Amino acid sequence: MYRYKISVEYLGANLAGWQRQSGVMSVQQILEEAIYKFSGEQVTLFGSGRTDAGVHAIGQIAHFDLSKYFEPYKIIRAINYFTRPYIVGVCNCELVDNNFHARFSAIARHYVYRILNRPYPSVIDFDRVWWISAPLDVSAMQKSSLYLLGKHNFTSFRASSCQSKSPIKTLTKLDIIKENEEIKLYFSAPSFLHHMVRNIVGSLVLVGKNIWQAEQMQQVLEAADRKAAGPTAPACGLYFIKADY
Asked: Same structural domain for residues 14 and 92?
């Protein structure tokens, strides 16, 4: 068997997320069907992260096995030919060792969350950013984010549907950068809880609106209670950037 690693980008607005689900269109299904159309083989695609409905990806990593060898560049062309009706594309493909696993071999995952902070929304970036018209205090958000760095119990930012065995995670990066009218929040960790990034963003926005004081984030974290944290930020602003191996 030949194992291929692919890098995938997609806009998630009209998709049901990464994972294949009955009755809806997912990224996994689109890619698996495209691979079948050119190879004649039914494969199972394994991704580095299971993005939710509406979440986008710049460099989602996945792998699959084929019994027949194909040149990687031909795989890119073939998959992209069949995924043209959808906003899903493969930007890189390489042959890897059979021990490689897109999910379990990953040592870090990186996300960015985009907030458009101005009085009026963007037509161009509709469904690609979270538009917030009220001015946000970025410096307060940056100060508050420091309480979340490192190894903690992130139960307060965990979705009730989360299947992770432990709420203990290590957030290695949380940078908040203002670029003109846009605020970008960069997250890095070996792994994340379900909705963890979006729940953190929703809480930091409360700080940015001066509804919470920056120091309250420590109390929210220590509460280990989802009810203590802020609302879940919309999926449209979240992007899976890449995974490290």
From this structure: yes
Residue 60: CB partners within 8 Å, gap ≥ 6?
7, 8, 9, 10, 18, 27, 47, 48, 49, 51, 240, 243
Q: Which of 52, 97, 137, 175 is catalytic?
A: 52
In this prediction the pTM is: 0.96
What is the rounded CA–CA span in Å between residue 79 and residue 76?
5
Q: Is 52 known to be catalytic?
A: yes
Q: Is 90 exceeded by the pLDDT of residue 123?
A: yes
CATH number at residue 206: 3.30.70.660
Asked if residue 162 is part of any domain, the answer here is yes
Name the strand (E) or helix (H) holding 213.
none
Strands (E) across 43-137 are located at 46-47, 56-66, 88-96, 108-117, 130-132
Q: Of 62, 96, 130, which marks where a domain is finished?
A: 96
d(CA 69, CA 75): 10
Q: Same domain for 135 and 233?
A: yes
> Structural domain of residue 51, as residue ranges?
2-96
Look up residue 90 and give its two tokens: 């493969």
Q: Do 232 and 119 belong to one domain?
A: yes
In sequence order, the 6+-apart residues with CB closer than 8 A to the CB of 74 are none
Query: What are the pLDDT digits (tens) for 198-213?
Result: 999 999 999 999 999 9
Which among 47, 65, 96 is the end of a domain?
96
Report CA-CA distances (Å) from 63 to 2, 11, 75, 238: 10, 20, 12, 22
Total tally of structural domains belonging to the chain? 2
Q: Region 46-59: what's the mean pLDDT?
A: 96
10 Å Cβ neighbour count for 84? 10
